[in-house]
Amino acid sequence: MRDPAEKPVTAVIVGGGHRSVTYADYSLAAPAALKIVGVADPNPERREMCRKRYGIPAENCFNDTTELASRGRIADAVINGTMDHLHYETSVPMLKLGYDMLLEKPFAVSKEEMDALLRVIAANGNRVMVCHVLRYAPFYRSVKEKLLSGALGDIINIQMAEHVSYHHLSTSYVRGKWANSDICKTSMLLAKSCHDVDLMMWLMQPTLPTAVSSEGGLFQFKPENAPANAGTRCTIDCPLVDSCRYSAKNLYLMHPTRWECYAWADIEHKENITDQDRIDSFNNGNPYNRCIYKCGNNVVDHQSVLIGFASGATGTFNMVGGTAKSMRKLHITGTLGELYGVLDDNKYTISRISALAESGFEDEVIDLSCENTRGHGGGDEALIADFVTYLRTGKQSVSCTAIENSIAGHLTVFLADKSREEGGRLQTVDFGQYGF
Prior knowledge:
Blueprint: E1 9-14, H1 18-24, H2 26-29, E2 34-40, H3 44-54, E3 61-62, H4 65-70, E4 77-80, H5 87-96, E5 100-103, H6 111-124, E6 128-130, H7 138-148, E7 155-165, H8 166-174, H9 181-184, H10 188-191, H11 194-204, E8 209-217, H12 234-237, H13 248-253, H14 260-263, H15 275-283, E9 302-309, E10 314-323, E11 327-334, E12 337-342, E13 347-353, E14 361-367, H16 379-393, H17 407-421, E15 427-428
Parallel strand pairs: 1-2, 1-4, 2-3, 4-5, 5-6, 7-10
Antiparallel strand pairs: 7-11, 8-9, 8-15, 9-10, 11-12, 12-13, 13-14
């Protein structure tokens, strides 16, 4: 008789967008591990795309989670890739039916939502993993293993920085889905950099944060910074369309595949999209054709966070938007040495204290360039594979993003944003209610 652990985990997609499909595609690469058996999405074209892509029966294609829930539980798990502010309302009905879940980050947009979701999970005993994929990137996984080995001794300070490129910032956080917190219900720190704060909490375990403060603001993309003769829509009424570094023509028409899942969402249902299709899209209200300075965005484009830990260590995180290229940097100082590296280079250096060495230190370079770095530094595929293993065995890997392991990062972000809104006022962190 076949071991049940060898049967594929069955899953339903909730929200058939880019992130859900990225994880669901694991079923195509490893059909013995994962099988997609349903989809819920209000967009009929995305439902149909998922139906064809994964061979989903027509009767398992639903408009929303209400329709899906009416059928009872039809799979082992849900892959929830809905927009941030929909995570709570789309997750709760599924959790109450007993589904386990892979839930896109952030798993909640406020402390109140987080606490309510955790109560539902506690009541129903669900296994929920959060999509903090960078824990699974070979770079960060290797760093974590070095720290666990004691290579740096006790950590004194951890410094992290995320540089968000000008084209990523403008696409997602000025023109795009996360540009206005009144609509998307998330801050820049929560939507973009909760990955990084989560990494810091994970690398610093078992110590927890005790105090958080933060400063930041919107520096560049304000109406008053627009050139005097700038138009309102790049390719329609702006004389700077060929020279502006944020021109929609240069960012999207000249590089049509760079951000295609965002910039061309209104025509994604078409086959063999042409340059003329994209021009027509820009001429017919595509929001990615708006002047970068006149988009009504209100999220920060730079923010700094200072964290104090129970061990006495300190940490800093800097999110800087509008850089020439994307980059994540890490520098950890311990009692035995220090570690520094760049995710995008896929290597890091450990400098160990050595009083006998001529230089006073000894360097070790860890080069991970031969590892898979596609999709969040190689994290996407590793995360979904670990999710399947977690559901089959109940065992958590060193990288496991089980929801209880993601509380510290989310709470730190909520308090950092509160501090920023209060002019940098220090916020104390209390984990008592979570049993830490």
